[in-house]
Amino acid sequence: MLKDLLQSLFADALIAAQTTGALPVFDLPTVEIQRPKQAEHGDYSTNIALVAAAAVRKAGGAANPRQIAQAVIDHLPSGDLIGGVELAGPGFINIRLADAWLQRQVLAILAQDTAYGNLTRGAGQYWQVEYVSANPTGPIHYGGARNAVLGDTLANVLEAAGYRVQREYYVNDAGTQFEAFVASVYARYAALFGRDVPFPENGYPGDYVVDYARRIAAEQGDALLHLPQADALVRLRPLARAVVLADLEQELKRIGVEFDAWFSEQSLYDQGLVQQALDYLDARGELVRRDGAVWFAASRYPKNDKDEVVIRSNGMPTYFASDIAYHYDKFIRRGFDHVVNVWAVDHQGHVPRMAAVMQALGLDPRRLTILMYDLVKLMRNGQEVKLSKRAGNLITINDVVDEVGADAVRFNLLTRSPESTIEFDLDLAVAQINENPVFYVQYSYARICSILARAATEGLTLRDDGAVPVHMLTHPAELALLRKLIELEEQIELAVEKLSPHNLTHYALELARTFNIFYRDCKVVDMEHPELSSARLHLAQATRIVIAKVLALLGVRAPESM
User: Looking at the domain that runs over 103-121+433-554, which CATH code has it been given?
Assistant: First the structure.
Protein backbone atom coordinates (compact mmCIF):
# COMPACT_ATOMS: atom_id res chain seq x y z
CA MET A 1 0.00 0.00 0.00
CA LEU A 2 1.02 3.59 -0.62
CA LYS A 3 0.84 4.41 3.09
CA ASP A 4 3.17 1.49 3.80
CA LEU A 5 5.69 2.90 1.30
CA LEU A 6 5.55 6.29 2.97
CA GLN A 7 5.91 4.74 6.43
CA SER A 8 8.99 2.89 5.24
CA LEU A 9 10.55 6.03 3.76
CA PHE A 10 10.10 8.01 6.98
CA ALA A 11 11.34 5.14 9.14
CA ASP A 12 14.44 4.99 6.92
CA ALA A 13 14.87 8.75 7.32
CA LEU A 14 14.81 8.41 11.11
CA ILE A 15 17.44 5.69 11.00
CA ALA A 16 19.59 7.73 8.65
CA ALA A 17 19.33 10.75 10.95
CA GLN A 18 20.47 8.59 13.86
CA THR A 19 23.33 7.16 11.81
CA THR A 20 24.68 10.63 10.94
CA GLY A 21 24.25 11.87 14.51
CA ALA A 22 21.58 14.39 13.62
CA LEU A 23 19.39 12.55 16.09
CA PRO A 24 20.38 10.40 19.07
CA VAL A 25 19.80 6.65 18.99
CA PHE A 26 16.41 5.62 20.37
CA ASP A 27 13.81 2.96 19.64
CA LEU A 28 11.89 3.89 16.53
CA PRO A 29 8.29 4.92 17.15
CA THR A 30 5.48 3.75 14.90
CA VAL A 31 5.32 6.00 11.88
CA GLU A 32 1.73 7.16 11.37
CA ILE A 33 0.70 8.43 7.96
CA GLN A 34 -2.62 10.25 7.73
CA ARG A 35 -4.53 12.28 5.19
CA PRO A 36 -4.81 15.95 6.22
CA LYS A 37 -8.30 17.29 6.72
CA GLN A 38 -7.57 20.12 4.28
CA ALA A 39 -6.30 19.32 0.78
CA GLU A 40 -4.04 22.39 0.70
CA HIS A 41 -1.93 20.77 3.45
CA GLY A 42 -0.80 18.05 1.07
CA ASP A 43 -1.67 14.49 0.20
CA TYR A 44 -0.51 13.01 3.51
CA SER A 45 1.00 14.13 6.77
CA THR A 46 2.91 12.50 9.61
CA ASN A 47 3.30 13.40 13.28
CA ILE A 48 6.47 11.33 13.61
CA ALA A 49 8.46 14.22 15.06
CA LEU A 50 5.88 14.85 17.77
CA VAL A 51 5.77 11.16 18.64
CA ALA A 52 9.56 10.87 18.71
CA ALA A 53 10.12 13.96 20.90
CA ALA A 54 9.87 12.14 24.22
CA ALA A 55 12.25 9.41 23.08
CA VAL A 56 14.74 12.01 21.80
CA ARG A 57 14.57 13.86 25.12
CA LYS A 58 15.15 10.60 27.03
CA ALA A 59 18.15 9.86 24.83
CA GLY A 60 19.65 13.27 25.67
CA GLY A 61 18.91 15.04 22.42
CA ALA A 62 17.09 18.24 21.55
CA ALA A 63 13.39 17.58 21.94
CA ASN A 64 12.04 20.40 19.77
CA PRO A 65 9.66 18.57 17.43
CA ARG A 66 10.30 21.04 14.59
CA GLN A 67 14.05 20.35 14.82
CA ILE A 68 13.35 16.61 14.82
CA ALA A 69 11.05 17.01 11.83
CA GLN A 70 13.71 18.96 9.93
CA ALA A 71 16.27 16.24 10.65
CA VAL A 72 13.86 13.65 9.29
CA ILE A 73 13.20 15.74 6.17
CA ASP A 74 16.95 16.24 5.60
CA HIS A 75 17.49 12.48 5.61
CA LEU A 76 14.60 11.33 3.46
CA PRO A 77 15.85 8.80 0.90
CA SER A 78 15.82 9.94 -2.70
CA GLY A 79 13.06 8.56 -4.87
CA ASP A 80 10.26 9.46 -7.23
CA LEU A 81 7.29 9.01 -4.87
CA ILE A 82 7.48 12.23 -2.86
CA GLY A 83 7.28 15.50 -4.73
CA GLY A 84 7.72 17.74 -1.72
CA VAL A 85 7.51 18.00 2.06
CA GLU A 86 7.06 20.94 4.39
CA LEU A 87 7.05 21.62 8.10
CA ALA A 88 3.75 22.66 9.59
CA GLY A 89 2.56 23.75 13.02
CA PRO A 90 4.40 22.33 16.04
CA GLY A 91 6.17 19.63 14.03
CA PHE A 92 3.88 17.99 11.49
CA ILE A 93 5.37 17.03 8.15
CA ASN A 94 3.08 17.54 5.19
CA ILE A 95 3.76 15.33 2.17
CA ARG A 96 2.96 15.96 -1.47
CA LEU A 97 3.16 13.14 -3.97
CA ALA A 98 5.19 13.70 -7.11
CA ASP A 99 3.20 14.50 -10.22
CA ALA A 100 5.26 12.06 -12.28
CA TRP A 101 4.50 9.23 -9.84
CA LEU A 102 0.79 10.10 -9.90
CA GLN A 103 0.75 10.13 -13.68
CA ARG A 104 2.26 6.64 -13.85
CA GLN A 105 -0.57 5.27 -11.76
CA VAL A 106 -2.72 5.34 -14.88
CA LEU A 107 -0.47 2.61 -16.28
CA ALA A 108 -0.57 0.69 -12.99
CA ILE A 109 -4.38 0.68 -13.00
CA LEU A 110 -4.56 -0.37 -16.63
CA ALA A 111 -2.07 -3.19 -16.02
CA GLN A 112 -3.82 -4.57 -12.95
CA ASP A 113 -7.36 -4.02 -14.26
CA THR A 114 -9.93 -5.62 -11.93
CA ALA A 115 -7.20 -6.61 -9.46
CA TYR A 116 -6.28 -2.98 -8.86
CA GLY A 117 -6.79 -2.00 -5.23
CA ASN A 118 -6.69 -5.56 -3.92
CA LEU A 119 -4.81 -6.10 -0.66
CA THR A 120 -2.88 -9.02 0.82
CA ARG A 121 -3.60 -8.37 4.50
CA GLY A 122 -5.92 -11.37 4.74
CA ALA A 123 -3.63 -13.92 3.10
CA GLY A 124 -3.87 -17.26 4.93
CA GLN A 125 -6.92 -16.19 6.94
CA TYR A 126 -10.23 -18.06 6.66
CA TRP A 127 -13.20 -15.95 7.70
CA GLN A 128 -16.91 -16.59 7.83
CA VAL A 129 -19.60 -13.96 7.40
CA GLU A 130 -23.00 -15.15 8.61
CA TYR A 131 -25.86 -12.89 7.63
CA VAL A 132 -29.59 -12.60 6.96
CA SER A 133 -30.44 -15.78 8.97
CA ALA A 134 -34.09 -14.72 9.22
CA ASN A 135 -36.46 -17.36 10.54
CA PRO A 136 -37.61 -19.54 7.60
CA THR A 137 -41.23 -18.62 8.19
CA GLY A 138 -41.98 -16.50 5.14
CA PRO A 139 -40.53 -13.88 2.80
CA ILE A 140 -37.89 -11.54 4.19
CA HIS A 141 -39.36 -8.16 5.08
CA TYR A 142 -37.66 -5.19 3.52
CA GLY A 143 -35.73 -4.25 6.67
CA GLY A 144 -33.88 -7.56 6.37
CA ALA A 145 -32.45 -6.40 3.05
CA ARG A 146 -30.04 -4.21 5.00
CA ASN A 147 -28.66 -7.29 6.73
CA ALA A 148 -28.32 -9.04 3.38
CA VAL A 149 -26.48 -6.30 1.50
CA LEU A 150 -24.31 -5.40 4.48
CA GLY A 151 -23.11 -8.97 4.97
CA ASP A 152 -22.69 -9.65 1.27
CA THR A 153 -20.75 -6.45 0.58
CA LEU A 154 -18.55 -7.01 3.61
CA ALA A 155 -17.73 -10.47 2.27
CA ASN A 156 -16.83 -8.90 -1.09
CA VAL A 157 -14.52 -6.42 0.61
CA LEU A 158 -12.84 -9.08 2.72
CA GLU A 159 -12.15 -11.12 -0.41
CA ALA A 160 -10.63 -8.04 -2.08
CA ALA A 161 -8.38 -7.73 0.97
CA GLY A 162 -7.08 -11.27 0.48
CA TYR A 163 -9.22 -13.21 2.95
CA ARG A 164 -10.79 -16.54 2.10
CA VAL A 165 -14.45 -16.04 2.98
CA GLN A 166 -17.39 -18.36 3.52
CA ARG A 167 -20.89 -16.85 3.32
CA GLU A 168 -23.48 -18.59 5.46
CA TYR A 169 -27.19 -18.38 6.22
CA TYR A 170 -28.17 -19.90 9.57
CA VAL A 171 -31.57 -21.52 9.09
CA ASN A 172 -33.55 -21.40 12.35
CA ASP A 173 -35.55 -24.54 11.63
CA ALA A 174 -35.75 -25.70 15.23
CA GLY A 175 -37.86 -24.20 18.00
CA THR A 176 -41.33 -22.85 18.59
CA GLN A 177 -41.44 -20.25 15.80
CA PHE A 178 -40.72 -22.76 13.09
CA GLU A 179 -43.18 -25.24 14.62
CA ALA A 180 -45.85 -22.51 14.58
CA PHE A 181 -45.05 -21.87 10.93
CA VAL A 182 -45.37 -25.55 10.01
CA ALA A 183 -48.69 -25.72 11.87
CA SER A 184 -49.86 -22.63 9.94
CA VAL A 185 -48.99 -24.26 6.62
CA TYR A 186 -50.79 -27.45 7.68
CA ALA A 187 -53.97 -25.53 8.53
CA ARG A 188 -53.95 -23.79 5.12
CA TYR A 189 -53.13 -27.07 3.39
CA ALA A 190 -56.06 -28.82 5.06
CA ALA A 191 -58.39 -25.96 4.11
CA LEU A 192 -57.53 -26.50 0.45
CA PHE A 193 -59.19 -29.92 0.72
CA GLY A 194 -62.16 -28.72 2.73
CA ARG A 195 -60.81 -29.79 6.11
CA ASP A 196 -61.27 -27.44 9.04
CA VAL A 197 -58.06 -27.52 11.09
CA PRO A 198 -57.84 -24.83 13.80
CA PHE A 199 -55.28 -22.17 12.93
CA PRO A 200 -52.57 -21.92 15.64
CA GLU A 201 -52.89 -18.91 17.94
CA ASN A 202 -49.26 -18.00 17.39
CA GLY A 203 -49.40 -18.82 13.68
CA TYR A 204 -48.49 -16.89 10.55
CA PRO A 205 -51.61 -15.53 8.84
CA GLY A 206 -50.00 -14.02 5.74
CA ASP A 207 -51.23 -14.88 2.26
CA TYR A 208 -47.81 -16.30 1.44
CA VAL A 209 -48.63 -19.27 3.75
CA VAL A 210 -51.57 -20.14 1.52
CA ASP A 211 -49.22 -20.06 -1.47
CA TYR A 212 -46.81 -22.45 0.28
CA ALA A 213 -49.73 -24.77 1.08
CA ARG A 214 -50.88 -24.79 -2.56
CA ARG A 215 -47.41 -25.70 -3.79
CA ILE A 216 -47.14 -28.53 -1.31
CA ALA A 217 -50.62 -29.73 -2.23
CA ALA A 218 -49.69 -29.72 -5.92
CA GLU A 219 -46.83 -32.06 -5.11
CA GLN A 220 -48.34 -34.20 -2.36
CA GLY A 221 -52.06 -34.14 -3.12
CA ASP A 222 -54.08 -34.86 0.03
CA ALA A 223 -51.63 -37.52 1.26
CA LEU A 224 -50.83 -35.69 4.48
CA LEU A 225 -54.50 -35.68 5.48
CA HIS A 226 -54.49 -39.48 5.59
CA LEU A 227 -52.03 -39.36 8.49
CA PRO A 228 -52.63 -38.51 12.14
CA GLN A 229 -52.02 -34.78 12.53
CA ALA A 230 -48.87 -35.26 14.62
CA ASP A 231 -47.37 -37.53 11.95
CA ALA A 232 -48.50 -35.16 9.20
CA LEU A 233 -46.69 -32.28 10.87
CA VAL A 234 -43.50 -34.35 11.04
CA ARG A 235 -43.79 -35.13 7.32
CA LEU A 236 -44.62 -31.50 6.56
CA ARG A 237 -41.59 -29.98 8.31
CA PRO A 238 -39.02 -30.65 5.55
CA LEU A 239 -41.58 -29.85 2.84
CA ALA A 240 -42.43 -26.49 4.37
CA ARG A 241 -38.74 -25.77 4.97
CA ALA A 242 -37.85 -26.57 1.37
CA VAL A 243 -40.55 -24.41 -0.16
CA VAL A 244 -39.78 -21.35 1.98
CA LEU A 245 -36.01 -21.67 1.49
CA ALA A 246 -36.46 -21.96 -2.27
CA ASP A 247 -38.32 -18.65 -2.20
CA LEU A 248 -35.79 -17.02 0.11
CA GLU A 249 -32.95 -18.09 -2.16
CA GLN A 250 -34.63 -16.56 -5.21
CA GLU A 251 -35.62 -13.43 -3.31
CA LEU A 252 -32.05 -12.85 -2.15
CA LYS A 253 -30.62 -13.56 -5.59
CA ARG A 254 -32.65 -10.62 -6.89
CA ILE A 255 -30.40 -8.32 -4.87
CA GLY A 256 -27.29 -10.29 -5.75
CA VAL A 257 -27.00 -12.21 -2.48
CA GLU A 258 -25.96 -15.86 -2.61
CA PHE A 259 -24.55 -18.18 0.03
CA ASP A 260 -21.91 -20.86 0.16
CA ALA A 261 -23.87 -22.71 2.85
CA TRP A 262 -27.36 -22.80 4.35
CA PHE A 263 -26.71 -24.20 7.83
CA SER A 264 -29.63 -25.93 9.55
CA GLU A 265 -30.16 -25.34 13.26
CA GLN A 266 -31.95 -28.69 13.39
CA SER A 267 -28.77 -30.37 12.16
CA LEU A 268 -27.08 -29.34 15.42
CA TYR A 269 -29.51 -31.67 17.21
CA ASP A 270 -29.59 -34.37 14.55
CA GLN A 271 -25.78 -34.66 14.65
CA GLY A 272 -25.56 -34.44 18.43
CA LEU A 273 -23.60 -31.21 18.33
CA VAL A 274 -25.68 -29.47 20.99
CA GLN A 275 -24.89 -32.20 23.49
CA GLN A 276 -21.27 -32.34 22.33
CA ALA A 277 -20.81 -28.60 22.84
CA LEU A 278 -22.47 -28.65 26.26
CA ASP A 279 -20.33 -31.63 27.29
CA TYR A 280 -17.28 -29.65 26.19
CA LEU A 281 -18.31 -26.72 28.40
CA ASP A 282 -19.22 -29.05 31.25
CA ALA A 283 -15.76 -30.61 31.16
CA ARG A 284 -14.29 -27.12 31.45
CA GLY A 285 -16.45 -26.37 34.50
CA GLU A 286 -18.58 -23.79 32.72
CA LEU A 287 -22.02 -25.30 33.46
CA VAL A 288 -23.88 -25.31 36.77
CA ARG A 289 -27.02 -27.15 37.85
CA ARG A 290 -29.73 -25.68 39.99
CA ASP A 291 -33.54 -25.59 40.15
CA GLY A 292 -33.62 -28.74 38.03
CA ALA A 293 -32.07 -26.92 35.04
CA VAL A 294 -28.60 -26.64 33.52
CA TRP A 295 -27.10 -23.15 33.33
CA PHE A 296 -24.16 -21.62 31.51
CA ALA A 297 -22.16 -19.67 34.11
CA ALA A 298 -22.16 -16.42 32.12
CA SER A 299 -21.98 -14.27 35.26
CA ARG A 300 -18.32 -15.22 35.63
CA TYR A 301 -17.53 -13.07 32.62
CA PRO A 302 -17.50 -9.27 32.11
CA LYS A 303 -20.75 -7.48 31.25
CA ASN A 304 -22.88 -10.52 32.16
CA ASP A 305 -24.84 -10.10 35.37
CA LYS A 306 -26.67 -13.43 35.30
CA ASP A 307 -26.28 -17.04 34.26
CA GLU A 308 -28.16 -18.39 31.23
CA VAL A 309 -30.31 -21.52 31.04
CA VAL A 310 -29.19 -24.02 28.40
CA ILE A 311 -31.32 -27.01 29.44
CA ARG A 312 -34.71 -26.27 30.96
CA SER A 313 -36.08 -28.19 33.93
CA ASN A 314 -38.26 -30.16 31.49
CA GLY A 315 -35.12 -31.41 29.75
CA MET A 316 -35.58 -29.27 26.62
CA PRO A 317 -32.64 -27.20 25.36
CA THR A 318 -32.98 -23.45 24.92
CA TYR A 319 -32.28 -21.42 21.81
CA PHE A 320 -29.08 -20.29 23.55
CA ALA A 321 -27.92 -23.91 23.63
CA SER A 322 -28.19 -23.93 19.83
CA ASP A 323 -26.16 -20.71 19.67
CA ILE A 324 -23.41 -22.26 21.76
CA ALA A 325 -23.35 -25.38 19.59
CA TYR A 326 -23.37 -23.34 16.39
CA HIS A 327 -20.32 -21.33 17.43
CA TYR A 328 -18.61 -24.43 18.79
CA ASP A 329 -19.08 -25.87 15.31
CA LYS A 330 -17.83 -22.69 13.60
CA PHE A 331 -14.62 -22.33 15.55
CA ILE A 332 -13.66 -25.72 16.94
CA ARG A 333 -15.01 -28.10 14.30
CA ARG A 334 -14.77 -25.99 11.13
CA GLY A 335 -11.81 -23.88 12.20
CA PHE A 336 -12.66 -20.38 11.04
CA ASP A 337 -10.03 -17.85 12.04
CA HIS A 338 -12.67 -15.18 12.49
CA VAL A 339 -16.45 -15.01 12.31
CA VAL A 340 -18.63 -11.98 11.62
CA ASN A 341 -22.31 -12.29 12.58
CA VAL A 342 -24.57 -9.58 11.16
CA TRP A 343 -27.38 -8.98 13.66
CA ALA A 344 -30.19 -6.46 14.00
CA VAL A 345 -29.74 -3.94 16.79
CA ASP A 346 -32.57 -5.48 18.83
CA HIS A 347 -30.23 -8.44 19.50
CA GLN A 348 -27.55 -6.29 21.13
CA GLY A 349 -28.35 -7.74 24.55
CA HIS A 350 -26.99 -11.10 23.34
CA VAL A 351 -23.55 -9.72 22.48
CA PRO A 352 -21.97 -9.94 25.99
CA ARG A 353 -23.09 -13.53 26.51
CA MET A 354 -21.60 -14.57 23.15
CA ALA A 355 -18.29 -13.04 24.26
CA ALA A 356 -18.63 -15.12 27.43
CA VAL A 357 -19.28 -18.25 25.35
CA MET A 358 -16.10 -17.63 23.37
CA GLN A 359 -14.05 -17.35 26.54
CA ALA A 360 -15.71 -20.40 28.06
CA LEU A 361 -14.83 -22.39 24.93
CA GLY A 362 -11.21 -21.34 25.40
CA LEU A 363 -11.29 -18.96 22.41
CA ASP A 364 -10.21 -15.36 22.04
CA PRO A 365 -13.48 -13.37 22.02
CA ARG A 366 -11.92 -10.95 19.53
CA ARG A 367 -12.25 -13.69 16.91
CA LEU A 368 -16.02 -13.15 16.92
CA THR A 369 -17.39 -9.85 15.66
CA ILE A 370 -21.11 -9.18 15.99
CA LEU A 371 -21.93 -6.41 13.57
CA MET A 372 -25.09 -4.63 14.66
CA TYR A 373 -27.23 -2.69 12.22
CA ASP A 374 -30.10 -0.32 12.93
CA LEU A 375 -33.54 0.00 11.41
CA VAL A 376 -34.56 0.92 7.90
CA LYS A 377 -37.42 3.36 7.45
CA LEU A 378 -39.10 2.99 4.11
CA MET A 379 -40.39 6.39 2.96
CA ARG A 380 -42.86 7.40 0.25
CA ASN A 381 -44.14 10.94 -0.26
CA GLY A 382 -42.42 11.92 2.96
CA GLN A 383 -44.29 9.33 5.02
CA GLU A 384 -42.96 6.13 6.54
CA VAL A 385 -44.31 2.91 5.05
CA LYS A 386 -44.95 0.52 7.93
CA LEU A 387 -43.97 -3.14 7.96
CA SER A 388 -45.94 -5.85 9.75
CA LYS A 389 -44.87 -9.43 9.14
CA ARG A 390 -46.97 -11.14 11.80
CA ALA A 391 -50.15 -9.36 10.76
CA GLY A 392 -49.73 -10.50 7.18
CA ASN A 393 -49.23 -6.95 5.91
CA LEU A 394 -45.77 -7.70 4.61
CA ILE A 395 -43.60 -5.51 2.38
CA THR A 396 -40.91 -7.81 1.07
CA ILE A 397 -37.57 -7.39 -0.64
CA ASN A 398 -39.31 -8.44 -3.87
CA ASP A 399 -41.85 -5.63 -3.48
CA VAL A 400 -39.18 -2.97 -3.18
CA VAL A 401 -36.96 -4.42 -5.93
CA ASP A 402 -39.99 -4.44 -8.22
CA GLU A 403 -40.46 -0.74 -7.50
CA VAL A 404 -36.92 0.67 -7.50
CA GLY A 405 -34.57 -2.06 -8.75
CA ALA A 406 -31.85 -4.08 -7.05
CA ASP A 407 -29.09 -1.50 -7.62
CA ALA A 408 -30.98 1.22 -5.77
CA VAL A 409 -31.71 -1.17 -2.92
CA ARG A 410 -28.10 -2.17 -2.46
CA PHE A 411 -26.49 1.24 -2.91
CA ASN A 412 -28.91 3.15 -0.69
CA LEU A 413 -28.73 0.60 2.12
CA LEU A 414 -24.95 0.97 2.18
CA THR A 415 -24.77 4.76 2.42
CA ARG A 416 -24.75 4.88 6.21
CA SER A 417 -22.73 3.14 8.89
CA PRO A 418 -24.50 0.02 10.22
CA GLU A 419 -25.37 1.58 13.57
CA SER A 420 -27.19 4.49 11.89
CA THR A 421 -30.87 4.45 11.00
CA ILE A 422 -31.54 4.67 7.27
CA GLU A 423 -34.47 6.43 5.66
CA PHE A 424 -34.92 4.89 2.22
CA ASP A 425 -36.72 7.34 -0.07
CA LEU A 426 -38.60 5.28 -2.67
CA ASP A 427 -39.34 8.38 -4.74
CA LEU A 428 -35.69 9.47 -4.93
CA ALA A 429 -34.50 5.92 -5.64
CA VAL A 430 -36.21 5.89 -9.03
CA ALA A 431 -35.54 9.52 -9.95
CA GLN A 432 -33.04 9.97 -12.79
CA ILE A 433 -31.40 13.02 -11.22
CA ASN A 434 -27.96 13.75 -9.81
CA GLU A 435 -29.37 13.77 -6.27
CA ASN A 436 -30.04 10.04 -6.66
CA PRO A 437 -26.63 8.63 -5.66
CA VAL A 438 -26.75 5.32 -7.50
CA PHE A 439 -28.03 7.00 -10.67
CA TYR A 440 -25.25 9.57 -10.50
CA VAL A 441 -22.47 6.97 -10.15
CA GLN A 442 -23.89 4.64 -12.80
CA TYR A 443 -24.51 7.52 -15.20
CA SER A 444 -20.90 8.63 -14.73
CA TYR A 445 -19.71 5.13 -15.55
CA ALA A 446 -21.93 5.01 -18.64
CA ARG A 447 -20.56 8.44 -19.68
CA ILE A 448 -17.00 7.05 -19.62
CA CYS A 449 -18.09 4.09 -21.75
CA SER A 450 -19.67 6.54 -24.19
CA ILE A 451 -16.48 8.61 -24.34
CA LEU A 452 -14.38 5.52 -25.07
CA ALA A 453 -16.80 4.41 -27.79
CA ARG A 454 -16.82 7.86 -29.40
CA ALA A 455 -13.03 7.98 -29.30
CA ALA A 456 -12.86 4.64 -31.10
CA THR A 457 -15.05 5.98 -33.92
CA GLU A 458 -12.56 8.88 -34.26
CA GLY A 459 -9.67 6.45 -34.50
CA LEU A 460 -8.41 6.94 -30.93
CA THR A 461 -7.99 3.60 -29.21
CA LEU A 462 -6.35 2.40 -26.03
CA ARG A 463 -2.73 1.39 -26.39
CA ASP A 464 -1.34 -1.91 -25.18
CA ASP A 465 2.35 -1.07 -25.69
CA GLY A 466 2.70 0.98 -22.50
CA ALA A 467 3.70 4.04 -24.52
CA VAL A 468 0.96 6.26 -23.13
CA PRO A 469 2.04 9.92 -22.75
CA VAL A 470 0.84 10.15 -19.16
CA HIS A 471 3.41 12.92 -18.49
CA MET A 472 0.99 15.25 -20.26
CA LEU A 473 -1.58 14.88 -17.45
CA THR A 474 -0.75 18.14 -15.69
CA HIS A 475 -4.10 19.95 -15.49
CA PRO A 476 -5.33 20.39 -11.87
CA ALA A 477 -8.49 18.43 -12.72
CA GLU A 478 -6.40 15.57 -14.09
CA LEU A 479 -4.16 15.46 -11.03
CA ALA A 480 -7.19 15.65 -8.73
CA LEU A 481 -8.70 12.67 -10.51
CA LEU A 482 -5.44 10.73 -10.21
CA ARG A 483 -5.34 11.46 -6.49
CA LYS A 484 -8.89 10.20 -6.10
CA LEU A 485 -8.20 7.02 -8.08
CA ILE A 486 -5.29 5.97 -5.88
CA GLU A 487 -7.49 6.14 -2.78
CA LEU A 488 -9.05 2.79 -3.67
CA GLU A 489 -6.60 0.72 -1.61
CA GLU A 490 -7.17 2.91 1.42
CA GLN A 491 -10.93 2.74 1.01
CA ILE A 492 -10.85 -1.07 0.95
CA GLU A 493 -8.49 -1.05 3.93
CA LEU A 494 -10.84 1.28 5.84
CA ALA A 495 -13.86 -0.91 5.11
CA VAL A 496 -11.98 -3.93 6.49
CA GLU A 497 -10.70 -2.05 9.54
CA LYS A 498 -14.19 -0.84 10.42
CA LEU A 499 -15.91 -4.02 9.17
CA SER A 500 -18.32 -1.65 7.46
CA PRO A 501 -18.35 -0.94 3.72
CA HIS A 502 -20.41 2.26 3.79
CA ASN A 503 -17.37 4.41 2.99
CA LEU A 504 -17.29 2.82 -0.48
CA THR A 505 -20.57 4.44 -1.50
CA HIS A 506 -19.20 7.85 -0.55
CA TYR A 507 -15.95 7.12 -2.37
CA ALA A 508 -17.91 6.11 -5.49
CA LEU A 509 -19.80 9.41 -5.39
CA GLU A 510 -16.64 11.46 -4.83
CA LEU A 511 -14.87 9.65 -7.66
CA ALA A 512 -17.80 10.21 -10.01
CA ARG A 513 -17.89 13.93 -9.11
CA THR A 514 -14.15 14.26 -9.59
CA PHE A 515 -14.35 12.59 -12.98
CA ASN A 516 -17.20 14.85 -14.09
CA ILE A 517 -15.17 17.92 -13.14
CA PHE A 518 -12.27 16.52 -15.19
CA TYR A 519 -14.63 15.91 -18.12
CA ARG A 520 -15.97 19.46 -17.83
CA ASP A 521 -12.54 21.08 -17.71
CA CYS A 522 -10.50 18.81 -19.99
CA LYS A 523 -11.48 17.88 -23.53
CA VAL A 524 -10.91 14.15 -23.81
CA VAL A 525 -11.56 13.39 -27.48
CA ASP A 526 -9.56 16.11 -29.22
CA MET A 527 -8.22 15.17 -32.65
CA GLU A 528 -6.21 18.42 -32.86
CA HIS A 529 -4.12 17.22 -29.89
CA PRO A 530 -3.96 13.43 -30.32
CA GLU A 531 -1.19 12.76 -27.75
CA LEU A 532 -2.92 14.72 -24.99
CA SER A 533 -6.21 13.16 -25.99
CA SER A 534 -4.61 9.71 -25.75
CA ALA A 535 -3.35 10.44 -22.23
CA ARG A 536 -6.79 11.65 -21.15
CA LEU A 537 -8.48 8.70 -22.80
CA HIS A 538 -6.34 6.30 -20.77
CA LEU A 539 -7.09 8.30 -17.61
CA ALA A 540 -10.80 7.87 -18.41
CA GLN A 541 -10.27 4.15 -18.87
CA ALA A 542 -8.46 3.94 -15.53
CA THR A 543 -11.42 5.72 -13.95
CA ARG A 544 -13.81 3.28 -15.60
CA ILE A 545 -11.86 0.38 -14.08
CA VAL A 546 -11.95 1.85 -10.57
CA ILE A 547 -15.63 2.81 -10.65
CA ALA A 548 -16.48 -0.68 -11.93
CA LYS A 549 -14.40 -2.18 -9.13
CA VAL A 550 -16.18 -0.18 -6.43
CA LEU A 551 -19.61 -0.94 -7.86
CA ALA A 552 -18.71 -4.65 -8.02
CA LEU A 553 -17.71 -4.57 -4.34
CA LEU A 554 -21.05 -2.95 -3.56
CA GLY A 555 -22.87 -5.55 -5.66
CA VAL A 556 -24.20 -2.87 -8.01
CA ARG A 557 -24.21 -3.07 -11.82
CA ALA A 558 -21.90 -0.93 -13.94
CA PRO A 559 -24.10 -0.25 -17.00
CA GLU A 560 -22.42 0.79 -20.25
CA SER A 561 -25.42 2.86 -21.27
CA MET A 562 -28.37 4.47 -19.51
Answer: 1.10.730.10
The CATH number of 2-97, from 3.30.1360.70, 3.40.50.2300, 3.30.160.160, 3.30.930.10, is 3.30.1360.70
pTM of the model: 0.94
* Domain positions in the chain: 2-97, 103-121+433-554, 126-171+259-373, 176-253
Compute the Cα dihedral for 116, 539, 545, 38 and give only its sign.
positive
Q: How would CATH label the architecture of 126-171+259-373?
A: 3-Layer(aba) Sandwich (3.40)
In this predicted model, what pLDDT tens digit does every residue of 44-74 receive, in sequence order? Answer: 999 999 988 888 888 777 678 999 999 999 9
- Span 185-208, mean pLDDT? 95
Which phi and psi angles does 431 have, rounded to 5°? -80, 130
pLDDT grade for 387, boundaries at 50, 70 and 90: low
pLDDT 10s digits, 93-145: 999 999 999 999 999 999 999 999 999 999 999 999 999 999 999 999 888 99
Strand boundaries in 78-204, DSSP class E = 82-88, 92-97, 126-130, 164-171
Q: What are phi and psi of 141, to 5 degrees?
A: -70, 160
Between CA 10 and CA 90 the distance in angstroms is 18
Report the alpha-carbon distance of residue 544 to residue 110 in Å, rounded. 10
Torsion of CA 201, 204, 209, 210, to 10 degrees: 40
Name residue 368's beta-bridge partners.
339
> Residue 376's closest CA among 316, 330, 429?
429
